[in-house]
From TrEMBL:
<keyword id="KW-0663">Pyridoxal phosphate</keyword>
<keyword id="KW-0808">Transferase</keyword>
<keyword id="KW-0032">Aminotransferase</keyword>
<dbReference type="InterPro" id="IPR001544">
    <property type="entry name" value="Aminotrans_IV"/>
</dbReference>
<comment type="similarity">
    <text>Belongs to the class-IV pyridoxal-phosphate-dependent aminotransferase family.</text>
</comment>
<protein>
    <recommendedName>
        <fullName>Branched-chain-amino-acid aminotransferase</fullName>
        <ecNumber>2.6.1.42</ecNumber>
    </recommendedName>
</protein>
<dbReference type="InterPro" id="IPR033939">
    <property type="entry name" value="BCAT_family"/>
</dbReference>
<dbReference type="InterPro" id="IPR036038">
    <property type="entry name" value="Aminotransferase-like"/>
</dbReference>
<dbReference type="GO" id="GO:0008483">
    <property type="term" value="F:transaminase activity"/>
</dbReference>
<keyword id="KW-0100">Branched-chain amino acid biosynthesis</keyword>
<dbReference type="InterPro" id="IPR043131">
    <property type="entry name" value="BCAT-like_N"/>
</dbReference>
<keyword id="KW-0028">Amino-acid biosynthesis</keyword>
<dbReference type="InterPro" id="IPR018300">
    <property type="entry name" value="Aminotrans_IV_CS"/>
</dbReference>
<dbReference type="InterPro" id="IPR043132">
    <property type="entry name" value="BCAT-like_C"/>
</dbReference>
<dbReference type="Pfam" id="PF01063">
    <property type="entry name" value="Aminotran_4"/>
</dbReference>
<dbReference type="InterPro" id="IPR005786">
    <property type="entry name" value="B_amino_transII"/>
</dbReference>
């Protein structure tokens, strides 16, 4: 008889049924260590195989690893949602798998197949199912990483790749009303194939810390980046896409290599069209943002959230917020599909349990 798989062992673990004694709503978006993480490796030029669940914790890595020396790494973010009936759903995980593959191709990395990615996510959720918060009180955030872990001194693609998924229960990403500041000095990315803003490269995030740190010290929730070529168009915030509403029309900046093609963004566009709104993807100027009725951001972590104000060149512009906004209507439908209370007519959800 075959030995029990790691997943079976996890599920038999006495701890796996015990509900953690934590106040789910207080977690916010900070790391809560869970029980297991998923690890799968492959040598350069080969295919990933034989992934395993291992106890969550620190792991060994060569000081000469590609990820540590040359930033050869990408990540993903998706959530597992508990329904009222107690089952667990994922939202469009194949989109995360495909985006990871696009990023891996761009950075010359091997990547898991879509099937391997989804199965690994499912195994990680099942092994940590006691950490999926009850319906309406939060979600289990999953963080797949793909990194060059082979050792080499010279600049070049790594000789080994590691795919790892860890997770943490989360509740709200932002606290209170969102007040954004337009960043005029630092740009997040450049457009076209030369840019890496369109993939979730680990190297995209730290370079804008000076801007986000300064904005947060001034009391802002986040910064809004402008295009590097002209500084006239809005792009995105540090981890979410942007939309504006004027009358019945919704528009969002085109993803042209500089902006991450968000899965929430894509889903919100589809939901808005279904609800009868006119939606356009095109370059959006700062000027038109300043005269919009409503501004909102989208992302796995932030869901769909109204932006209460934007400050540009020391002038603060306020926008409509509250339950009657377009953003809140879109948020309600999206969250309903994700948590199983609104019929999933598009086949976006994948049941794990
Ligand atoms: C830079 C950036 N933009 C947008 C998003 C939103 O993407 P998604 O809706 O796929 O979470 C994220 C988060 O993944 C991000 O890091």
């Amino acid at each position: 008889m075959a030995p029990p798989s790691v997943l079976e062992n996890c599920l038999e673990d006495s701890n796996s049924e015990t509900c953690p004694d934590i106040n789910w709503e207080d977690i916010g978006f900070s790391l809560v260590p869970t029980d297991y993480m998923y690890v799968m490796k492959c040598a350069k030029g080969e295919k990933f195989s034989n992934g395993n669940l291992v106890r969550y914790g620190t792991f060994e890595i060569s000081p000469a690893a590609g990820i540590l020396n040359y930033g050869q790494g990408i990540f993903e973010g998706l959530k597992a949602y508990r329904t009222e009936e107690g089952s667990i759903l994922l939202f469009r995980p194949e989109e995360n798998a495909l985006r990871m593959k696009a990023g891996a191709d761009r950075l010359c990395m091997s990547s898991p197949s879509v099937e391997q990615f989804i199965n690994a996510v499912k195994d990680t959720v099942l092994a940590n199912k006691r950490w999926v918060p009850p319906a309406g009180r939060g979600t289990l955030y999953l963080r797949p990483l793909l990194m060059g872990t082979g050792a080499s001194l010279g600049v070049g693609p790594s000789t080994e790749y590691t795919f790892l998924i860890y997770c943490s229960p989360v509740s709200n990403y932002h606290k209170g009303p969102l007040n954004f500041k337009v960043e005029e000095k630092l740009h997040r990315a450049i457009s076209g194939f030369s840019g890496t803003g369109g993939i979730k490269s680990v190297t995209n995030y730290a370079p804008v810390y000076p801007a986000t740190t300064e904005a947060k010290a001034e009391g802002f929730s986040d910064v809004l980046f402008l295009d590097a070529a002209t500084g006239k168009h809005i792009e995105e915030a540090s981890a979410c896409n942007m939309f504006l509403v004027k009358g019945n029309a919704i528009c969002t900046p085109t993803t042209d290599g500089a902006i991450l093609p968000g899965i929430t963004r894509k889903s919100v566009i589809a939901i808005a069209l279904d609800l009868g709104y006119q939606v356009t993807e095109r370059p959006v100027t700062v000027e038109e943002m300043l005269i919009a009725d409503e501004l909102f951001c989208t992302g796995t972590a932030v869901v769909v959230n109204n932006i209460a104000s934007v400050t540009y060149k020391n002038t603060k512009v306020e926008y409509k917020t509250g339950s009657e906004t377009v953003a809140q209507k879109l948020r309600k439908t999206l969250l309903g599909i994700q948590t199983g209370t609104v019929e999933d007519r598009k086949g976006w959800t994948v049941r794990v349990l």
